[in-house]
Write a structure and sequence with these properties.
about 375 residues
């Protein structure tokens, strides 16, 4: 009875561990893949996309509808590109609506309106308005406007956006380098403009704002700048630029320029809105560098990926312990299953050996006892 109970426990343990392993294996497989790809944004995004689509096959179509409802044709088109990459079928009606929305967004009237808005206000949220903003900055109008405005706030002891001030000051120096190199540092110029515009419209992530603010403070010599803007004006660009450039500390601008370069890379690969989406979710320059690698690998799909997973598309923002727990749980279940199989095998083998030994013992006893004795009367009767 005791041996039977032990065998039953071993069989029960094997069944429980097998069931647990079957449940944990898919999650553990995904968790292990994510942990292995934690330093490769493109691979990490692929794993998460595949997992999300398994859980909700209609995910892409739902997001396309939401983007069209929000009048964001660029985002809707990004999801269409993602669907094409993943061989997901979309209805002809839906793809036609996206194509029409993209065509409308790229129309001449829309572009002209956006360009003028970006040129005058210095705020950008699409290709057209960014083109106007960059044009204004390349002709130093935009950067002088921002430096003079914020510099005068600084001189008068008023609230000053030092980040915009530092970015505009750096932009003036980079603009000169752009002309000298015939556009060779244009991505940096565009990157500085996008960071500045994201700051103005409140689309710069809190962590990145703090980091960029500290970096911007270091590139500006405040006393020299105060003196420069005291008499500076947009109407006298040559004099103003020369005075402001004297306040720029080029040796302190390395980190800020690298950030701008990465933002420019995102903008070139994923578009202006992709760059602005990156700046909104990034917590530091490393996040932007990862986004640049993702954008260069995924191109137009980048906005869709960032929309689905946010900062989680760039790195393991949180949950690494939970992912490791899934892997550990699956390994524990596997160990339990193997141990239960071992225990069950040992108990079955032991039971079989004992049964075989018992049969052998009975045969030996029977052989030792000899043939059965015949009663005397029976023997005489047959004799």
């Amino acid at each position: 009875m005791k041996r039977t109970r032990r065998l039953g426990l071993a069989l029960t343990g094997m069944a429980v561990c097998a069931a647990a392993l079957a449940l944990l294996a898919p999650y553990a497989r995904d968790a292990f893949a994510i942990l292995a790809a934690r330093d490769e944004p493109a691979q990490l995004a692929d794993i998460r996309i595949n997992s999300a689509l398994r859980n909700n096959p209609a995910l892409v179509e739902q997001n396309i509808e939401a983007a069209l409802a929000a009048r964001d044709a660029d985002l809707a088109n990004s999801f269409v590109e993602l669907a094409r990459e993943k061989n997901l079928a979309l209805s002809d009606a839906l793809t036609t609506r996206v194509s029409d929305a993209v065509a409308e967004e790229k129309s001449a009237s829309h572009f002209a309106k956006g360009f003028a808005t970006g040129l005058v206000t210095g705020n950008a949220d699409d290709v057209a308005s960014l083109s106007g903003t960059v044009a204004g900055d390349l002709f130093v109008f935009g950067d002088i406007r921002d430096v003079v405005r914020e510099g005068k706030h600084l001189a008068m002891g008023e609230d000053t956006d030092r980040l915009v001030l530092g970015l505009a000051t750096a932009g003036l120096a980079v603009t000169a380098a752009t002309y000298v190199s015939v556009g060779g540092v244009a991505p940096i110029r565009a990157g500085l403009t996008m960071v500045k515009d994201a700051r103005k419209v409140g689309r710069l992530g809190e962590g990145l704002t703090q980091w960029a603010g500290r970096s911007a403070r270091e590139v500006v010599d405040a006393p020299v700048l105060q003196q420069a803007v005291a008499t500076g004006s947009v109407l006298r660009p040559g004099e103003t630029v020369s005075a402001i450039k004297a306040a720029f500390r080029a040796e302190k601008a390395g980190a800020l320029v690298r950030l701008a370069k990465d933002v420019g890379r995102v903008g070139e690969a994923a578009g202006t809105r992709g760059a602005l989406d990156t700046l909104r979710i990034a917590e530091g320059p490393k996040d932007v560098a990862r986004a640049a690698r993702l954008a260069e690998s995924r191109g137009g799909q980048t906005r869709a990926i960032l929309k689905l997973f946010g900062r989680g598309a760039l790195l393991l923002a949180a949950g690494a312990f939970n992912l490791a727990s899934w892997v550990f749980g699956a390994l524990l279940a596997l160990f339990g299953l193997l141990s239960s199989i071992k225990a069950t095998t040992e108990r079955l083998t032991l039971a079989w050996l004992r049964a075989r030994k018992a049969r052998r013992l009975r045969k030996q006893l029977a052989a030792a006892a000899g043939p059965p004795e015949v009663p005397l009367a029976s023997a005489l009767a047959h004799g």
